[in-house]
Design goal:
The protein is an alpha/beta fold. It has 33 helices and 24 strands. It is globular and about 95 Å long. Bound molecules: ligand 26Y.
């Protein structure tokens, strides 16, 4: 009789053990007697990988056969974190695996933590892409991700003498989760020239010639859905010297050195993730990365489409492509080039297909993050693409002129080409013009796009091209995986884990808010999670923190708009306040651990100064006997996804305190609340919708509103500006050398005192401090605090990426899930 499943589809502890041992002994050529934790990790990963491969092949076959519309998510960043725990949980075999590992003498947590994070992203945008992949697979959408296979992910951060130092993150050795597809390659052209010629019908056509060729090689990563057989694909491109004849000429001519140099230059394209988050720098290599990845992905997509033998006008019925910010905007131009130059379609036929295919997501209104590429750079690197951009612009401006005659101001405002020196291509405008839908990532953000940045385009196209899709996070990683105890408690109350795939079911928890026993269990889980973090802090920093303290966390990329400086100034204020207290007064203080973590872009000097100050304050405060356990300040080194999984479940309070109107959405706010933490935050990004969902009484909001920011900034520059008196005291302490050389922090203080306080730190300081006092009071009433915590979690159903993906599918992509039958 045939087996119901092959050996690699283990469903019991024994079957898993067999697979594990087989991989350790044969694939890894190790004996069980010298099997260390890392080998146990590799063996386990390989056993799970086999399972994924089987379903992945089946999924790809099923999707090809069904011939329905697919989604391609183009993102330069996929901040995946670790894969093993996720794979175990998504295929539902973590129990069996942990039992099996235990038999061999290993703890599953130790094995899991052997894995190197896949850190192919900077922050929110990259992590959102990773959550989207999880939801698209879980919801059975036929969907692929396309990205770059960087040899070096985001740098590893070390703190040396209080300063950030960047260490390269070489992560590719022994990565069991990727499959090289050496047979899937695309030749990508750069430089060269455009030649005009007469085609067979006597029409003028364009040919891009004499360029340099670099080869793109596909590496595939399986993406398992939770509780479904659907296993989707993430395809990452790696660059390699072309093996074409042309490129061997140098070798043949004996020019060995220069041939090797060419080879290295080719490999440089996918060598490193640019570590800037929300800061555009216009580097040629970055533009090369963008085109390399867009062109490879587009050719792959077109190749797949052509196999179906459909007419070109069916392309948008078969394919939706989502642009994760403007980074892949060249895909728009590349598709138009393929259609008109290579496939012989007319301009209008091509452009009609292009605009129906693409959707564009904007993640930021910060001017310094908006991509612009210089015309001379594009002219040199991608001469044919520049011509197409000019033509897109010409036809667009003609359309605008028709609708709004004689408005030259308008034409120059909306032109894709900015008339500066040198001229610049505004990628966001190109993305809007080349897409059928443009969305922001939270309500306020989408409204701001329509009323400020893209206002003219709303007038030109009407409001329907612009929409909002509020972000979410995947509850599988951010609740079930990061906080197994809480997930289990919820499951016990709700009668199963269905809430993990329908997060709105969490609302049933509200019925238990007053249940004493339930509250105690809830509280105990938080305590255990805090103990786990306290242990981690002691192991990594040497500082002991009291787990009974209020854990106050701000972890995210360091940026002035996110205002870690407001946090650290608030901490200094608290420190000064405690130091001035009598012993009697001190007894009433709620002990606090302030935890800050995040990377600064290597060239972002102000952000690095903030990190430096946090570390200096930490070393002063943590050894001050006047303060003891009343205040501890911890900087978490090298904040990343796997550390976030320990940190999020352990917070009592987290800080989301950007200047109103600056944060697109924020997604860690959602992760923290989902884990029963409360928030102190501004009326910004998704904080506003979180408040609407969980109720004003369950969140600590403070600070000025977005609508008042412009006027305040204006007043700083032209009216009289006085630093908040409590903040002034903080500055006095810093300048007096309390935290080391005052000069080191000069710029931080003067950006507020002398240079207009662009981020409104002073304006919001008093409100921030007062709100923290309210937090202290609330924390003392533990029963009420617990009620807030439980109620908030119960009302977080909206913030699952499952809801988000369904919205994209309905309102932007027009795709249906491909339901799997057993
Ligand atoms: C142009 C280049 C230097 C660049 C590189 C990375 C520009 C921007 C970025 C990253 C942006 C980013 O992470 N944005 C964040 O996206 C999240 C997901 O939508 C939002 O929650 C968050 O508010 C936003 O800052």
């Amino acid at each position: 009789a045939w087996l119901k499943h092959s050996a690699s589809e283990f469903t019991t502890k024994e079957e898993f053990e067999k697979e594990l041992v087989r991989h350790i002994e044969t694939t890894l050529a190790r004996s069980l007697y010298n099997c260390d934790e890392h080998a146990a990790y590799s063996g386990t990963a390989l056993a799970f990988r086999d399972r994924l491969i089987i379903e992945w092949n089946r999924t790809q076959q099923r999707q090809t056969l069904s011939d329905q519309k697919r989604v391609y998510y183009l993102s330069l960043e996929f901040l995946m974190g670790r894969a093993l725990d996720n794979a175990m949980l998504n295929v539902g075999q973590k129990e069996n695996a942990s039992e099996g590992l235990k038999d061999l003498g290993f703890r599953v947590e130790d094995v899991i933590s052997q894995e190197h994070d896949a850190a192919l992203g900077n922050g929110g945008l990259g992590r959102l892409a990773a959550c989207f992949l999880d939801s698209m697979a879980t919801l059975n959408y036929p969907a692929w991700g396309y990205g770059l296979r960087y040899r070096y992910g985001i740098f590893k951060q070390e703190i040396v003498d209080g300063y950030q130092v960047e260490i390269p993150d070489y992560w590719l050795d022994n990565n069991p989760w990727e499959f090289p597809r050496h047979e899937i390659t695309v030749d990508i052209q750069f430089y060269g020239n455009v030649r005009k010629y007469q085609d067979a019908n006597g029409k003028t056509a364009n040919s891009w010639e004499n360029g340099e060729i670099v080869q793109a090689v596909a590496y595939d990563v399986p993406i398992p859905g939770y509780g479904t057989k659907t296993t989707n694909n993430l395809r990452l491109w790696s660059s390699k010297a072309s093996t074409g004849e042309f490129d061997f000429q140098k070798f043949n001519a004996g020019d060995y050195e220069s041939a090797v140099a060419d080879q290295q230059r080719a490999e440089t394209i996918s060598a490193v993730l640019y570590p800037n988050d929300n800061l555009e720098r216009g580097k040629e290599l970055r533009l090369k990365q963008q085109y390399f990845w867009c062109a490879a992905s587009l050719h792959d997509i077109v190749r797949r489409f052509k196999k179906t033998n459909r007419a070109w006008n069916e392309f948008p019925d078969q394919i939706a492509i989502q642009l994760n910010d403007t980074h892949p905007t060249l895909a728009i131009v590349e598709l138009q080039r393929i259609l008109i130059d290579l496939e012989g379609l007319s301009w209008d036929e091509g452009w009609n297909i292009v605009t129906k295919t693409f959707g564009y997501t904007n993640h930021t209104v910060l001017p310094e993050a908006l991509e612009k590429w210089s015309v001379p750079l594009l002219q040199n690197l991608l001469p044919r693409h520049l011509q197409i951009i000019y033509d897109v612009n010409l036809f667009f401006l003609q359309q605008v002129e028709k609708k709004f005659p004689n408005d030259r101001e308008l034409l120059s405002r909306v032109s894709i080409i900015e008339e500066s020196h040198p001229q610049m291509v505004r990628m966001a405008y190109l993305a809007i013009i080349g897409s059928h839908k443009v969305n922001g990532v939270a309500e306020l953000h989408s409204d701001l796009l329509k009323s400020t940045l893209f206002k003219d385009f709303v007038n030109i196209y009407g409001p329907d091209r612009f929409t909002n899709v509020t972000n979410g996070v995947t509850p599988r990683r951010w609740l079930h995986q990061a906080n197994p105890a809480l997930s289990a408690l919820i499951a016990k109350k709700l009668g199963g884990h269905d809430f993990l795939t329908d997060l709105t079911l969490l609302d049933k928890l509200e019925a238990f808010v007053d249940d004493k026993e339930f509250r105690a269990e809830w509280s105990e889980i938080k305590t255990q999670n805090k103990l786990r973090l306290a242990k981690f802090i002691q192991e990594t920093t040497g500082f002991k923190v009291n787990p009974k303290s209020l854990f106050d966390v701000q972890v995210k990329r360091i940026h002035e708009y996110k205002r870690q400086q407001l946090n650290i100034f608030g901490i200094i204020h608290r420190y000064l306040t405690i130091k001035a207290m009598t012993p009697e007064q001190k007894k009433k203080v709620v002990p606090r651990v302030s935890i800050i973590g995040g990377k600064a872009a290597p060239g972002y000097w102000m952000a690095k100064t903030i990190i430096h100050l946090v570390n200096k304050v930490s070393s002063v405060v943590n050894q001050d006997p006047d303060v003891g356990d009343l205040l501890k300040v911890i900087f978490i080194e090298d904040y990343n996804v796997s550390k976030a999984e320990i940190i999020c479940p352990a917070s009592d309070l987290s800080e989301h305190i950007s200047t109103a109107g600056t944060e697109g959405s924020g997604t860690s706010n959602m992760k923290f609340v989902m884990n029963g933490g409360l928030i102190i935050g501004t009326c910004d990004g998704a904080n506003i919708e979180i408040t609407r969902e969980i109720g004003e009484q369950n969140i600590f909001l403070f600070g000025n509103l977005a609508e008042d920011v412009e006027e305040l900034r204006h007043r700083h520059l032209y009216g009289d500006f006085k630093v908040d008196p409590q903040l002034a005291k903080v500055f006095e302490a810093v300048k007096g050398g309390m935290f080391g050389d005052a000069k080191d922090f000069q710029a931080l203080c003067s950006s507020i005192e002398e240079h207009g306080d662009y981020y409104l730190v002073s304006d919001d300081f008093n409100s921030y401090i007062t709100t923290h006092e309210m937090v202290d009071e609330a924390f003392q009433k533990q029963d009420e605090w617990l009620a807030k915590s439980i109620t908030s979690v119960a009302r977080m159903g909206f913030f699952s990426t499952d809801r988000v993906i369904n919205e994209y599918a309905d309102s932007i992509w027009n795709v249906e899930p491909l339901v799997v039958k057993d």
